[in-house]
Design goal:
Structural class: alpha+beta
Order of helices and strands: HHEEEEEHHEEEEEEEEEE
Strand order of the largest sheet: 8-7-9-14-15
CATH architecture: Alpha-Beta Complex
Shape: globular
Number of helices: 4
CATH superfamily: Creatinase/methionine aminopeptidase superfamily
Bound molecules: 2-amino-4-trifluoromethylsulfanyl-butyric acid, cobalt (II) ion
Oligomer: single chain
Number of domains: 1
CATH class: Alpha Beta
Largest sheet: 5 strands, antiparallel
Distance between the termini: 33 Å
Strand content: 25-35%
Helix content: 25-40%
CATH topology: Creatine Amidinohydrolase
C-alpha cells in the first residue's frame, strides 16, 4: 500500500474525529482509579461511542477479532490488553489505555499510560519517559524531516534513561483506515527513511520497557507482555504534518504548528 496524503479539508474532518476520541480518552483516564475494573472502562468507552455516534476502530479488528473497543494494558502488559470484569485496578498500577474511533470515515488513534493512585518513583519515571519520548518525536513532525529522525529521537530519549523501546510493534499512517503506510518505528538512524510531507498523518506510539525490549504474546493472541515481565508504558497521538509544522490532532490544545500541552 502506498501513503495516502490528506487535503486540508480532510484534515479538518480528521481533527473532528480526533477530538471526539481524545475527549472519550480523557473520561477513561479519569476513571482509572483503584477498585475500577478494566471492563468498567470498556463500558465508559462504549457509552462515549454511542453518545457521539462514532464507530469503534478496534471492535472485531483483525484475526482473531479484537473483542473490545479499547485496549487496557496494566504494568508488564505492553499493548493490546483486553478489558475484563475480573481485572481490578489497584493502587500503584500503571495502565495504558488505547482508544480509536471513526467519524466522518476517518480514524483517530490515541493512548496514554495513567498512574493508578500513588505509584512508585520507578514507575513514575518510566511513564514520564515514555510521554517525553512521544513529545520529542512530535517536535520533529515537520515536513522535510525523515521517519528515522522520529525513531532515533524516541529511542535515544528512552535509552538515555536506561530503558528500551519495543521493536515488534510500530506506529503507522492513519486515515480512512486505522493502519496505513508508512510504518513509524520507535527506533532508527537519524537522517534515514522516508521524508515527511505536508498532508501525511501518522500515529506515533512509543512503547518503552523498563527491562529488555522483547515481547511475548499471551494465549489470547492479543495481550503483549514484556518477556522479562518488566514494566512498560505506551503513549500515542495522531499527528498531521502541515505547512506550519506538527498538528497533534488528538490533543485539544494543539493547532497547526503548535503541539499544545
Ligand atoms: N490502537 C492500536 C494501535 O495503536 C491497535 C489496536 S489493535 C485492536 O495501533 F485490535 F485493538 F484494534
Ligand atoms: Co492505538
Ligand atoms: Co496506533
Amino acid at each position: 500500500m502506498r501513503i495516502v496524503y490528506k487535503s486540508p479539508d480532510e484534515l479538518k474532518l480528521m481533527r473532528e474525529s480526533a477530538l471526539v476520541t481524545a475527549g472519550i480518552l480523557d473520561d477513561l483516564c479519569a476513571a482509572a482509579v483503584p477498585g475500577a475494573s478494566t471492563w468498567d472502562l470498556e463500558m465508559i468507552a462504549r457509552a462515549g461511542i454511542a453518545k457521539h455516534k462514532v464507530k469503534s476502530a478496534f471492535l472485531n479488528y483483525a484475526q482473531p477479532p479484537y473483542p473490545a473497543v479499547l485496549c487496557t494494558s496494566i504494568n508488564e502488559v505492553i499493548v493490546h490488553g483486553i478489558p475484563r470484569k475480573d481485572e481490578i485496578l489497584k493502587d500503584g498500577d500503571i495502565i495504558g489505555i488505547d482508544f480509536g474511533t471513526f467519524k466522518h470515515s476517518f480514524c483517530a488513534d490515541t493512548a496514554r499510560t495513567v498512574c493508578v493512585g500513588k505509584v512508585s518513583p520507578e514507575k513514575q519515571k518510566l511513564v514520564d519517559t515514555a510521554r517525553g519520548a512521544l513529545e520529542a518525536a512530535i517536535a520533529l513532525c515537520v515536513a522535510g524531516n525523515r521517519l528515522g529522525d522520529l525513531g532515533h529521537a524516541v529511542q535515544s530519549y528512552a535509552e538515555a534513561q536506561g530503558y528500551s523501546v519495543v521493536r515488534q510493534f510500530v506506529g503507522h499512517g492513519i486515515g480512512r483506515q486505522m493502519h496505513e503506510d508508512p510504518q513509524v518505528p520507535n527506533y532508527g538512524e537519524a537522517g534515514s527513511g522516508k521524508r515527511l510531507k505536508t498532508g501525511l498523518v501518522i500515529a506515533v506510539e512509543p512503547m518503552v520497557n523498563a527491562g529488555s525490549p522483547d515481547v511475548e504474546v499471551l494465549e489470547d493472541d492479543w495481550t503483549a507482555v514484556t518477556k522479562d515481565r518488566s514494566m512498560s508504558a505506551h503513549f500515542e497521538h495522531t499527528i498531521a504534518i502541515t505547512d506550519d509544522g506538527p498538528w497533534v490532532l488528538t490533543r485539544a490544545t494543539s493547532t497547526p504548528g503548535n503541539p499544545g500541552a
